[in-house]
């Protein structure tokens, strides 16, 4: 009886212990050694509030190119103190999801080969991020540099960066500043960013900024990828053209812009992929919007719930040297597309689901005659919304018996839309008309003057006037 109770107690204790182990592990971190070149130290979810000394096993790693990953994901560390030496050639450390609000000077100086540091989802402010935290060992009177290539500072409380922050990290290649209350890229922050001349990836999503001053990009001669989503931009920032010769990926989702036009992507001639989505106020893509994008391969123009008009000239000037392979127009508010919008048959993938397609002859032409219907991904065939009798049918199912015979003259017949007009076009038109009228008036006056002159002075001479009006008629 007594022993049975004892067994039950022990069983219960074991059970609850193992359950506790499932949730939160206490005690030392787990070491996984894949081979001489690959070690993982897992300190995730262990209720740690300070950084422990490394376990002995960490020094078992021998390979010259060894990779070491140390993760403290989801603990309650508040203070990053000086870390102990870690062997290996590429060291990655993650402090993601802690409560860090302090980092000591020299915190990483024993880890020369630190290439990846994740400090996202902490409580860091800009003041804590001083250049001293990244300085390497002190040698011959100077602090040396560290190898840091990827730095994730996302989801913190950063308003501004120290202008010398990247002084000791010359190889910084990827910088994530997303989800911080930056609001304004002030002078010092700009100096900090532009000092990272090897930067290739910059994430400024959800930082509440509405402008990027030109100086920000001055030093960034290697920038390949930028994310500006979830900000307050009313237009695509002009300063981007400064990195136009290197920029390959631009993400511009969720900003309050209302239109895209021929100024939007000026100078981005090397862009390979563009994503413009979830812009809830975007209702129009105007003529020549994509014209500067002479290398574009993938266009995502999706989830813009008000977007209802794409100018038939949006890709003007690109058709001769067509580079686009994938065009996604899903989940906008489009109902019509122009037959000559783009060379449909040259695409590899086309997405058109989630719009209000009016299944008319133009759409039938695009889908059937111009072969767009064969570019949809399996299971992503768009439906007709109108006219009523076709509503709910696949647009690839519509028969074209009611349409005029498709010939080239039909496709070339351009429709002119008032919304194609831009203030500068109107201005030029007015100037043009004005000039013609002016010249006409001058000619008229001159003619009258000659006439009067001849009438007065040469009345006796028989002159044959040619009536210009009669002649023209
Ligand atoms: C190291 O091992 C982990 C599995 O433990 C693996 O996911 C990772 O890709 C390996 N890294 C390298 C560089 O071999
Ligand atoms: C690290 O440990 C935690 C807690 O035991 C576990 O949930 C997680 O899957 C581990 N991660 C890896 C990469 O082994
Ligand atoms: C971290 O762990 C806590 C429990 O300790 C949990 O409530 C929280 O959701 C976790 N956070 C993340 C980002 O996983
Ligand atoms: C962080 O830790 C260091 C070393 O233990 C200590 O000197 C410093 O006061 C700590 N900072 C904070 C804000 O707790
Ligand atoms: C930066 O990268 C270069 C080239 O890969 C390398 O020679 C140099 O040692 C690196 N700098 C640091 C501080 O690791
Ligand atoms: C989509 O367009 C239709 C008219 O074509 C309009 O009635 C509707 O309000 C638009 N939806 C949005 C979200 O603007
Ligand atoms: C498309 O056409 C096929 C064959 O004509 C028919 O079976 C199918 O129901 C149609 N589907 C839609 C969604 O129009």
Automatic annotation (TrEMBL):
<keyword id="KW-0472">Membrane</keyword>
<feature type="signal peptide">
    <location>
        <begin position="1"/>
        <end position="20"/>
    </location>
</feature>
<dbReference type="InterPro" id="IPR050328">
    <property type="entry name" value="Dev_Immune_Receptor"/>
</dbReference>
<keyword id="KW-1133">Transmembrane helix</keyword>
<feature type="transmembrane region" description="Helical">
    <location>
        <begin position="426"/>
        <end position="450"/>
    </location>
</feature>
<keyword id="KW-0812">Transmembrane</keyword>
<keyword id="KW-0433">Leucine-rich repeat</keyword>
<dbReference type="Pfam" id="PF13855">
    <property type="entry name" value="LRR_8"/>
</dbReference>
<dbReference type="InterPro" id="IPR003591">
    <property type="entry name" value="Leu-rich_rpt_typical-subtyp"/>
</dbReference>
<dbReference type="Pfam" id="PF12799">
    <property type="entry name" value="LRR_4"/>
</dbReference>
<dbReference type="InterPro" id="IPR001611">
    <property type="entry name" value="Leu-rich_rpt"/>
</dbReference>
<dbReference type="InterPro" id="IPR032675">
    <property type="entry name" value="LRR_dom_sf"/>
</dbReference>
<protein>
    <submittedName>
        <fullName>Uncharacterized protein</fullName>
    </submittedName>
</protein>
<dbReference type="Pfam" id="PF00560">
    <property type="entry name" value="LRR_1"/>
</dbReference>
<keyword id="KW-0677">Repeat</keyword>
<keyword id="KW-0732">Signal</keyword>
<dbReference type="InterPro" id="IPR025875">
    <property type="entry name" value="Leu-rich_rpt_4"/>
</dbReference>
């Amino acid at each position: 009886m007594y022993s049975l109770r004892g067994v039950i107690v022990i069983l219960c204790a074991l059970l609850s212990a193992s359950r506790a182990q499932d949730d939160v592990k206490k005690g030392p971190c787990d070491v996984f050694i894949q081979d001489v070149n690959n070690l993982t130290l897992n300190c995730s979810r262990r209720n740690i509030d300070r950084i422990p000394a490394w376990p002995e096993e960490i020094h078992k790693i021998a390979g010259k190119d060894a990779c070491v990953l140390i993760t403290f994901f989801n603990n309650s560390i508040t203070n990053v103190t000086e870390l102990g030496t870690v062997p290996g050639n590429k060291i990655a450390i993650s402090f993601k999801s802690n409560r860090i609000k302090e980092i000591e000077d020299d915190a990483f100086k024993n880890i020369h080969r630190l290439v990846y540091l994740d400090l996202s989802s902490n409580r860091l402010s800009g003041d804590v991020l001083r250049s001293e935290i990244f300085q390497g060992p002190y040698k011959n009177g100077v602090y040396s540099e560290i190898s840091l290539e990827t730095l994730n500072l996302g989801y913190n409380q950063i308003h501004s960066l120290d202008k010398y922050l990247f002084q000791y990290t010359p190889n910084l290649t990827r910088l994530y500043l997303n989800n911080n209350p930056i609001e304004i890229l002030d002078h010092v922050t700009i100096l900090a960013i532009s000092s990272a001349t090897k930067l290739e990836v910059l994430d400024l999503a959800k930082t509440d900024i509405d402008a990027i001053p030109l100086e920000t990009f001055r030093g960034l001669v290697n920038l390949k990828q930028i994310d500006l989503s979830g900000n307050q931009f009313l237009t695509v920032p002009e300063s981007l053209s400064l990195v136009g010769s290197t920029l390959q990926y631009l993400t511009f989702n969720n900003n309050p812009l209302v239109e895209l036009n021929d100024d939007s992507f000026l100078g981005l001639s090397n862009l390979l992929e563009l994503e413009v989505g979830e812009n809830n106020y975007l209702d129009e893509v105007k003529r020549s919007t994509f014209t500067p994008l002479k290398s574009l391969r993938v266009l995502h123009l999706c989830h813009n719930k008000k977007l209802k008009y794409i100018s038939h000239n949006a890709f003007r000037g690109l058709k001769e040297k067509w580079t686009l392979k994938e065009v996604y127009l899903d989940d906008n508010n489009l109902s019509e597309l122009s037959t000559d919008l783009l060379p449909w048959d040259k695409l590899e993938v086309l997405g058109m689901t989630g719009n209000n397609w009016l299944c008319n002859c133009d759409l039938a032409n695009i889908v059937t005659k111009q072969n767009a219907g064969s570019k949809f991904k399996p299971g992503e065939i768009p439906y007709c919304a109108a006219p009523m009798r076709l509503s709910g049918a696949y647009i690839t199912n519509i028969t074209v018996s009611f349409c005029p015979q498709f010939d080239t003259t039909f496709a070339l017949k351009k429709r002119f839309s008032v919304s194609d007009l831009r203030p500068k076009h109107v201005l030029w038109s007015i100037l043009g008309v004005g000039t013609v009228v002016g010249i006409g008036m001058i000619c008229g006056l001159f003619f009258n003057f000659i006439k009067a002159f001849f009438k007065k002075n040469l009345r006796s001479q028989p002159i044959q006037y040619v009536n210009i009006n009669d002649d023209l008629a």
